[in-house]
Amino acid sequence: MFFERAVREEGASSVPAMRIAVIGAGPSGLATTIALMRRVHRPFEAWLIDAEDAPGAFGDGPAGKALTTEPARDLSVLPDRPDDFAEWLKGSLLAGGAVAALRGPQDLHVPRAVFRDYVMARFGEALSLRRDVRIRTFRGAVRHIGVAGTGLRVAFRDGESAEFDHVVVATGFGIAEREAASWRGAAAAAERLSQQADPSPLTLVGNGPRLAAILLDLRARGFAGEINVAAASGRLPQPHGRGHEGMAFGEPPATRSLKDAFRYIRNECSAAEARDGGQWQTVVDAASARLSVVWRNLPQAERNHYRRHLLRLHRHFSVRIARDVHRRLGAEFETGRTRFVPSCDPRSADENTIDCREMPSARALAGLIGRDAAALTVDDCGRLLSHSEALCGLSVVGAIASSLRPGPFTFAETVRQTYRAVLDIAPQGLARVSHR
């Protein structure tokens, strides 16, 4: 148990406390819990549930030494203070230091352990102001989420279950592929191969920031063997371009055709690039922002077509890495020790093939709730819908939500999702609790 604080008797309310489950204890789950403490102005009990990790564990070990995918300017957990992380860095780590001459920390990519410290600091501050809140942590793999009276029951693989007024799924990529397992598996395989006289190549499957970080970490630790990168696209993420804020776009059409939607976005981005001189990365980022607007008018069949055929490609071209990481990757491939190979399924490969994929799975989410993935979508408030009808008491935020709707695939968007979801949770939860 990471920590737990009981409701103090002197601060207890006669109104029954809501009980909320947050499935996932990574950045998305912590951002959700912070949003709950800042925006739900009545007593509640929140369970932070994770299959493997305690809150903040994403910053532990070698994964914590890897640089954040996004710069500091995009990593605030407070949407009303978008520069909060940058200001925290400036005040707590950079004041009077060797980097004081820099223009500012907004563009810095810092070790994930530093970002974890910031998130946990804001988590602790929010908790210190709420005497009427209880936070629990629970390590367990969720097997099923189903209706139970006026709320939901979360069933775990060990046979235990618990009931809640509301459930927020904020698992990131963890439902299908667990980050810690990728790091452990890669380190173990590298050590095993280093002891062999004529080793076969180590194969890393994926093409996202996680694979890039693991690859560079293996080299930094001294692994000199051959590494095959099995990436479906045959390339790794691109570096960040300049921000697309201020780029002007026309009103999106009320189209019900995915083809028309992409034609609009392509034309608008081409005009913006010619007018503003934007880099292609910047134009793709702007396109991601427009897709979420167009998405509202598309029928479910068109949404499913996007998820089946375009989501992976869109995600690959939208996700960014630090420029320094991109430069180091380029130098690594130039050595000839690392090369691209055709994509493969790591589940049918040998022990020297490591799954580093980061693609969230709508099918895995559908399995948790016993629904057809083709019928699911997420609205702007994070409500999970099946056949266009909201599933009462269930919200989806973060990376897992991006398996059901287009980007932008950024932490800033995840934070905005959590606050929209929390503002929607409060009146729903109050209505359910009042009927008990």
From TrEMBL:
Pfam families: NAD_binding_9
Transmembrane segments: none
Positions of the FAD-dependent urate hydroxylase HpyO/Asp monooxygenase CreE-like FAD/NAD(P)-binding domain: 21-173
Database matches in PANTHER family: BLR0577 PROTEIN
Lineage: Bacteria, Pseudomonadati, Pseudomonadota, Alphaproteobacteria, Hyphomicrobiales
Organism: Shinella lacus
Protein name: FAD/NAD(P)-binding protein
Superkingdom, natural source: Bacteria
